[in-house]
Design a protein that fits this description.
CATH superfamily of one domain in chain A: MetI-like
Distance between the termini of chain B: 58 Å
Oligomer: heterodimer
Shape of chain B: globular
CATH class of one domain in chain A: Mainly Alpha
Structural class of chain A: mainly alpha
Order of helices and strands of chain A: EEHHHHHEHHEHHHHHHHHH
CATH topology of one domain in chain A: MetI-like fold
Distance between the termini of chain A: 43 Å
CATH architecture of one domain in chain A: Orthogonal Bundle
Helix content of chain A: 55-70%
Number of domains of chain B: 2
Largest sheet of chain B: 6 strands, mixed
Chain lengths: 433, 340
């Protein structure tokens, strides 16, 4: 009886009509509220009845799970043995078995570093962000590629100083204590000196001053990368690279300086006007012909550049949409406060614009993530490509469907994850106006 | 004046160095690098395909391993670069790979205008037909009026049209974009006949619900000689890749295989075997490699017969009979040039 009791005016109890409560009530209200809805419900139930049981039977009941050869599969249901046998290849491509721990460590650092971003009141979020954007890529690069590396300690220190100085100059809020305005006047000279040293210093003094070279683990060439690992590398480089580049392009396109505007418009329209497959094809086929013989660029690097540039053109237009949505009053108010261009953009306009276009940005990311499968046509074995290669092995012919279902499931997990995170961000940043 | 001459001399030296760099042959480059870069497919069953451990296998792959053994006596000194059908020639021309071993059909245009050299034929393929046993068809000549499943926009489709016209027969094409769709349509009974290259028929057949219910007809309606490819204008390298294949074939012809090769080397009185295995003559030296090159190839990779049996032969899932790929003295087309 309890759920039939409804509170009406103070001090009275009204009983709901029996047809609207309980299971029967819910069914009646939601599924059979009108003849048309009743028909739709019945048709949907029939469609579910026709499709779901055979699917469940194929994927679970009749499926084969144990074994290590195709003989273990009777072809009645899905052959998940195929996925099991090929699991390592689908995850890591041709990455040497003994080095796979490096991929795990790479994933692990990322996971540990990303956890604080989900903790609402974590105090040093900015520093985690700086770590993820600037330090992690260096660590990950060395983890995944490996081999001998040489670092000049002096260069390293100069680089660190430059990074710290830049953070202090442009994002004083990040620094632990307020920096004196004097730093702002010194900074340009400091930046030029540090940059010049990094670019030319070694050559001027005839070699590294304090070289340290080490081989922590063997080199794994990028041609051995593959599977889900490669997909994640391409997607994350594309995502991390395209957002800042896209923002710069969007600002450039709205710039009042005609040359900059023309360059940005041309860049965006050219890259947006060609299909990604063409870009990749150019990167993999034409580019080597332009280079002198013997000089070859890493194939993966070429693909990464192509994907990033392509994605940034799209990103620019999404960001421009956000910039245009900001009322003119905001710009004028910023000017009235005496803010210059960069501070107007950085402190007033972009934070609002980017928040508006989060759905669009994430939409682009998801599209980019799925577009990475196109690297297949330039001979890189991404997640999907590896599944196809596995299904064309003479011993495993005929199991393509299992491969496709598995990769589809993998892609769905990542894309759905991104979508949920974007909704979380939207809710968190929603300030209600 | 002195300064001028010095400048000239310096320029000349630079030019010589640059020219020398450009002219250094592939063989020297490969020896210096210590590995062979081999362009393979993204997965053609039996020819080049990764296995579940991540190793490349197949006939085309074994050719590359053979080249590596001839040079370094180590079949692992190969770097495989999977290439799509479209980018394969560019990769070879631009020097990204040293040898392209990617079941590529030898044609005049490729051999000339594309600037390539085919080093031989590793596999004689040709287009064939498959029908269900239920139809009780014994010859392609009985296929008048049949519906044929075929991939669209391929030479396969053109060969099919030529064949039926030449034999005054009619047919109904059922075309699809991808091989997977074609075989699925055939399996679902949407056409009577499935056509593609014979090695492809064997592979696609395994995707059928009941592979034993189908039969491959004896007719072969096109020539598809598949072989390794190198760049024009590098004869030393061309020779090496060419003779790696011949050594494998010659070894089979003279009964040398990976199991008896050491014993043959020690005991054989046959001068041909002695020359192949480097006991007599300077065969390897003439190619620019060690005299034991063929011995090493046979020991580490096997002779052509062993390679065939291992990758596509009757005991593999592909179950391809030797047919045209038998040796010339066993009714096939494989005729190795003499090693002498």
């Amino acid at each position: 009886m309890a759920n039939r009791v409804q509170v009406g005016a103070p001090g009275t109890l009204i009983l709901r009509p029996p047809a609207t409560v309980g299971v029967a009530g819910w069914v009646r209200q939601n599924l059979f509220s009108s003849p048309a809805n009743a028909v739709l419900t019945l048709v949907s139930l029939w469609v579910l009845y026709v499709t779901v049981p055979p699917l469940v039977r194929w994927a679970f009941i009749d499926a084969d799970w144990v074994g290590s050869t195709r003989e273990a599969c009777d072809r009645e249901g899905a052959c998940w043995v195929f996925i099991r046998v090929w699991f390592d290849r689908l995850m890591y491509g041709f990455y040497p078995e003994s080095e796979i721990w490096r991929i795990h460590v790479g994933y692990g650092i990322l996971a540990v570093a990303a956890v604080p971003l989900f903790v609402p009141r974590f105090p040093w979020k900015h520093w985690v962000g700086v770590f993820l954007l600037f330090v992690y890529p260096v660590i990950a690069f060395h983890l995944f590629v490996g081999g001998t590396f040489t670092v000049d300690i002096v260069d390293l220190l100069a680089g660190l100083a430059l990074a710290a100085g830049t953070v202090a100059r442009f994002a004083p809020a990040l620094a632990a204590r307020p920096w004196s305005p004097r730093w702002r006047s010194i900074y340009p000279a400091f930046a030029v000196v540090a940059l010049a040293w990094l670019l030319l210093g070694g050559r001027l003094v005839g070699g590294p001053l304090l070289p340290v070279s080490a081989t922590l683990w063997p080199l794994v060439e990028t041609r051995l990368w593959g599977g889900l690992f490669l997909t994640l590398v391409v997607a994350s480089v594309g995502i991390v690279g395209s957002l800042p580049l896209g923002i710069v392009l969007a600002l450039g396109r709205r710039s009042e300086l005609p040359v900059i505007r023309a360059i940005c418009v041309a860049f965006i329209e050219v890259w947006r006007g060609v299909p990604l497959i063409t870009v990749l094809f150019m990167a993999s086929n034409m580019f080597p012909l332009f280079m002198p013989e013997g000089v070859s660029f890493d194939k993966l690097l070429r693909a990464l550049l192509g994907v990033t540039i392509f994605a940034s053109a799209y990103m620019a237009e999404v960001v421009r949409g956000g910039l245009q949505a900001i009322p003119k009053g905001q710009y004028e108010a910023a000017q009235a406060l005496g803010l210059g261009y960069w501070r107007t953009m950085g402190l007033i306009v972009l934070p609002q614009a980017l928040r508006i276009v989060i759905p669009g940005i994430v939409n682009n990311f998801i599209g980019l993530f799925k577009d990475t499968t196109l690297v297949l046509i330039i001979g890189l074995f991404d997640f999907l490509g590896m599944a196809q290669a596995a299904a064309s092995n003479a011993h495993w012919l005929g199991f393509a469907i299992e491969g496709y279902v598995f990769t589809a499931f993998g892609f769905w997990i990542f894309c759905f994850g991104m979508s949920r995170y974007s909704q979380h961000l939207e809710r968190k940043l929603h300030t209600g106006h | 004046m002195y300064r001028f001459i010095r400048t000239l001399a310096f320029l000349a030296a630079v030019c010589t160095l640059v020219a020398a760099g450009a002219e250094a042959g592939t063989m020297d480059d490969v020896k210096k690098k210590g590995f062979v870069r081999c362009g393979v497919s993204q997965g053609v069953p039996g020819f080049s395909n990764p296995d579940a451990q991540g190793n490349w296998t197949g006939i085309d792959v074994d050719i590359c391993r053979g080249v590596a053994v001839a040079l370094f006596n180590d079949p692992t000194k190969v770097k495989y670069l999977p290439l799509s059908a479209k980018e394969r020639f560019t990769a070879l021309q631009s020097g990204e790979v040293d040898v392209l071993s990617r079941n590529t059909t030898w044609t005049l245009v490729r051999d000339t205008a594309l600037g390539l050299n085919f080093t031989g034929v590793t596999y004689y393929d040709g287009q064939g037909f498959m029908v269900t046993k239920k139809l009780n068809v014994k010859s392609a000549k009985q296929l008048n009026g049949a519906s044929v499943c075929v991939s669209i926009g391929t030479t396969t489709e053109l060969n099919l049209a030529d064949y039926f016209r030449a034999n005054n027969m009619s047919y109904k094409p059922v075309t699809f974009e991808k091989a997977d769709e074609v075989i699925a349509a055939y399996d679902a009974g949407r056409c009577d006949v499935f056509t593609t290259d014979r090695s492809g028929l064997a592979a696609q057949r395994l995707k059928l619900k009941n592979p034993d219910g189908h039969v491959v007809l004896p007719e072969i309606i096109s020539k598809e000689p598949l072989g390794p490819v190198v760049r024009h204008g590098d004869d030393q390298w061309f020779d090496l890749v060419k003779w790696v294949l011949y050594a494998m074939l010659e070894a089979e012809e003279y009964g040398v295989n990976s199991e008896n090769v050491d014993q043959m080397k020690a005991t054989s009185k046959d001068p041909v075997v002695k020359r192949i295995l480097g006991v007599e003559g300077d065969m390897g030296k003439n190619l620019g490699v060690d005299n034991a090159w063929a011995h090493n190839i046979i020991k580490k990779i096997g002779n052509y017969g062993e390679i065939y049996e291992r990758n596509v032969g009757p005991r593999t899932p592909l179950k391809l009979e030797r047919g045209m790929n038998a040796l010339w003295n066993k009714g096939g087309l494989q005729y190795p040039m003499p090693i002498r």
